[in-house]
TrEMBL record, chain A:
Residues that, per the record, bind heme: H122, Y126
Extracellular side stretches: 29-149
Protein name: Cytochrome c-type biogenesis protein CcmE
Signal sequence annotation: none
Species of origin: Shinella sumterensis
Amino acid sequence: MTRKQKRLAVIGGGVAFLVAAVLLVMFAFSQSIAYFYVPGDLAKASVPPGTRIRLGGLVEDGTVKRGEGSTVTFTVTDTLATVPVTYTGILPDLFREGQGVVAEGAFGTDGLFVADTVLAKHDETYMPKDVADRLKAQGVELSGKETIK
Amino acid sequence: MIIELGHYALILALATVIIQAVLPLIGTIRNDRALMAVAPAAAFAGFLLVLFSFSVLTFAYVVSDFSVANVWENSHSLKPMIYKISGVWGNHEGSMLLWLLILVFFSALVASFGANLPERLRANVLAVQGLISTAFALFILLTSNPFIRLSPAPAEGQDLNPVLQDIGLAIHPPLLYLGYVGFSVCFSFAIAALIDGRIDAAWARWVRPWALTAWSFLTAGIAMGSYWAYYELGWGGWWFWDPVENASFIPWLAGTALLHSALVMEKREALKIWTVLLAILTFSMSLLGTFLVRSGVLTSVHAFATDPTRGVFILAILVFFIGGALSLFAFRAATLKAGGLFAPISREGSLVLNNLILTTAAATVLTGTLYPLVLEALTGEKISVGPPFFNLTFGLLMLPLLLAVPFGPLLAWKRGDMLAAGQRLFAAAAIGLVVAAAVMYAHSGGPVLAYFGVAIGFYMIAGAVTDLWLRAGIGKVAGNVAFRRFVGLPGSAFGTALAHIGVGVTVIGIVAVTAFETEHVVEMKPGMQVEAGGFTLTFDGMRRGQGPNYSEESGHFTVARGGTVVTDIWSSKRFYTARRMPTTEAGIRTFWFSQLYVSLGDAMADGGIVVRVWWKPMILCIWIGTLIMMAGGAVSLFDRRLRVGAPQKARKVKPALEAAE
């Protein structure tokens, strides 16, 4: 190989690597992006069972029920619509009725939302930003307890 | 009064760093030595002033002076002293002041250890440091002033976020900032070189110690943050691909690439333009990380408060420095002459491969981190890019890199022999496969990839040892000669080997815990038992306790193996009264490199409690590996050949300089 051919081979290899990396990123995006919904969205457009989404809203008062073992069911609401959720595992420290929550998972064929992750990263003055934005956009009055600082 | 002095010192510091930014630059343009000489003095003065200002804020926290709004918002008189002090940077204003303190500290370091730098280079480097300091001092004074008073002063503070009331807060942010901000020196060197339009191997030799220092601290900071999240959050995870974690990981990847490309530049005068670009990009990623974490565009434990003006201000700083640096690069890069040709299969070639993969990986993580933000800004659609994305892309990208790592040091500069290197690594590969087979025998039924991962980890460790082995000539020359040669090997050889061994150890930890950890979530009543990792845990019951600023409920577990009691574990849930916020304090017991991890869930109506028990095999290897990597960085730093420009007395440097020339 001449020096020029060698150089071309190296550059070609580098470009091929980068193209492969871009394709990999695009493939991974198509596999693992989860869209964010509030219950009101789901009333308008349904999400097929098995599609991973993030469901945000408030935990409706009086709906948290402990099932067998560590299974918990609760209802997520944005005051326009509600979605029942089931989750097996330990709820975060800050999970409370009447407060913001983001559940990650997918709908089962029976219409029940099965969450594998529940996030409630907030203290008394804070709720997940996604949730607060959407609730505000829908005109839900947030009491002082739940607004973003 | 003392508070106002601290405030005033900060304003004086701003004036000082403006002088540091402007006068030396004019000096280099006019070739005025007196003006250039202002730079070190201004850097020292700026450092002392910010140090005083920071000490005053710390004092306000120590004496719980709630007339200072920042102290009132983030402290409590009953808080233990260590958390009063670490609480200084456990909030937005204080942590930005720490950022600035470390920035001016590095400027002062450059000023004091840079006595042997060419005059113009030193003046320009310090001027750029001054410019960055000016931006951040302005940011603090205009948008995030920690010295604002309250009148009347409240009687009691609001306490610090309980998650942050941990020894981790005392260690993690300072280490991380030392890393983040340390790369500012590399950035300043790059800009100074571009301003002057001159760059050579000596430049790389001056920059490498700073890159090594920053890299070592950043490694420590990230590892510490990871371990902190692991034990404090009670979720048992050690890395979440959270945007904030990524914000520190991206500069780490870029910085690792920089370390390696600077090596090529120093030894062979090749990759000059690329190294300068990497130095700019690494610090740009640090700034971007600061922006992501501090602007409030992300919500996490790190986003203390959200205020749009701050976000806009940091964004302006970001655009100014990254945009300015890249424009300067575009204008001046052509004036830098490329040098040093090399064959694709060579030490240089392997380092280029390292750079290609690391920067691609950094770009991938950056894409995954920013994509949701960009999409939301453009379309309003909210999505999340979770761990599966990063595991797939990052994992696949790392695979060829990990396999290639042991080859690098075995290839000769300019033109290497792949076949010979492969033959030398035969033993290392065999060791990896044998260990993997042993693991497969002991723990059959795991995913095939896991055994492969274990093999790679051991192959990397053995490969790094192979390099030292061959260099010392063990087995080829007499034992005492080999020993003398081994001891006489340059520090950078040990540094390289240690860093690569560290990567191998971390890989082993990650693979083992991902593939072989066990998790049980059970509802337990006193007397009930659960099995994990060959241990039997018996739940004995709950106990109430009271801490200085919290109340807690702790569960007691007796740990037995084969019928004999080995140890016991306390796991608790705390409730911090001032913030009315609960936290989980996981109970952790270490057995060699593995850990039992117990965290408590909710109490049930019938007296039981939900308990989550993990067996985390070899998990400590993850962090031990990072410690070894850091040690590698430190050992390289003490390589005599790097002493030019590194912390070192001027007299000793002279012979080294001559030798280098």
